[in-house]
Design a protein that fits this description.
The protein has 275 residues and is an alpha/beta fold. The protein has eight helices and twelve strands. The relative contact order is 0.14.
């Protein structure tokens, strides 16, 4: 069950899609919801060491702190209005420290929810998502910044390639899949494999869990997995996508795989990932 949820709060806009979506998820599962707003420590340019530069940095730090406190207050009001048990925190950290810290905090929750990074301006959400995927060992649900509605589970799309990450994502998504109207298991391959039904084993397993399963095999000769997934999301009107999150950590730097990064940049539906 999903009983404890963590959400990263958007400090740059009062219209926070991840916050609103997290409230809808917590409402469906009657879960406790915790919000975290980061007041990011400003980067101190090497050329600004005089008193004027210090004053500018101090003013900017105050603005970031105020924005984080505003995000926390908006979250508290919205959660209270939804009748949820909730709490919220403001943490002051640099971006790298915030990403790692969020991932470690997320270990203590059933699910973490983060907004997709906006295409323009600074994008701290991208680092927070990577931190959650690599550091938490828990599922991460990423919400498109254009998302207007709360959690819907009429149709869920599971991207299946037989990997460990995909298996982990399916297992973590079971509380959501059990509430879905229909679950479509989608496999993507560059060639058609005759006498072999890709994804049949995991589809059979999910059917044994009492889920209504459909199986779809897509032949993609363009070698563009991201576009293939997104096209099928649109064609099938999927409300939620479940997939493994790929990548590795090298010298404490997060390195995401191409399909994962492509989905994070171009997603059109909320996507649950696990690593």
């Amino acid at each position: 069950m999903i009983r404890d949820i963590l959400v990263n709060l958007d400090t740059n806009s009062a219209q926070d899609a991840a916050r609103d979506y997290a409230i809808s998820v917590a409402s469906m599962f009657e879960a406790h919801l915790t919000g975290v707003a980061f007041a990011y420590e400003p980067v101190n340019p090497g050329t600004l060491f005089d008193s004027i530069g210090t004053a500018i940095i101090a003013q900017y730090r105050d603005e970031l702190r105020t924005a984080a406190q505003t995000a926390r207050n908006l979250f508290a009001n919205a959660a209270q209005g939804a009748g949820l048990l909730s709490q919220a925190h403001v943490l002051e950290l640099g971006l790298a420290g915030a990403a790692t810290t969020f991932g470690r905090i997320a270990r203590n929750y059933d699910l973490s929810i983060i907004g997709q990074a906006r295409p323009s301006g600074e994008a701290p959400e991208e680092a927070i998502i990577e931190g959650a995927l690599f550091e938490s060992g828990r599922p991460v649900l990423i919400v498109p910044y254009i998302q207007k509605t709360g959690l819907k589970l009429d149709r869920v799309m599971v991207c299946w390639d037989g990997s460990r990450n995909a298996a982990r994502a399916v297992a973590d998504a079971l509380p959501l899949l059990r509430r879905a109207g229909a679950v479509e298991v989608v496999t993507i391959d560059s060639v058609e494999r005759r006498n072999e039904v890709a994804g049949a084993d995991i589809a059979e397993h999910l059917a044994r869990c009492g889920l209504k399963i459909e199986l779809k095999s897509i032949v993609d000769k363009t070698n563009d997995t991201t576009s293939t997934i997104l096209n099928h999301v649109a064609d099938s009107c999927a409300d939620l996508v479940v997939m493994g999150g790929y990548g590795h950590s090298r010298l404490r730097e997060f390195v995401l795989g191409g399909a994962t990064r492509g989905m994070l940049r171009s997603m059109t539906a909320p996507t649950l990932m696990a690593h």
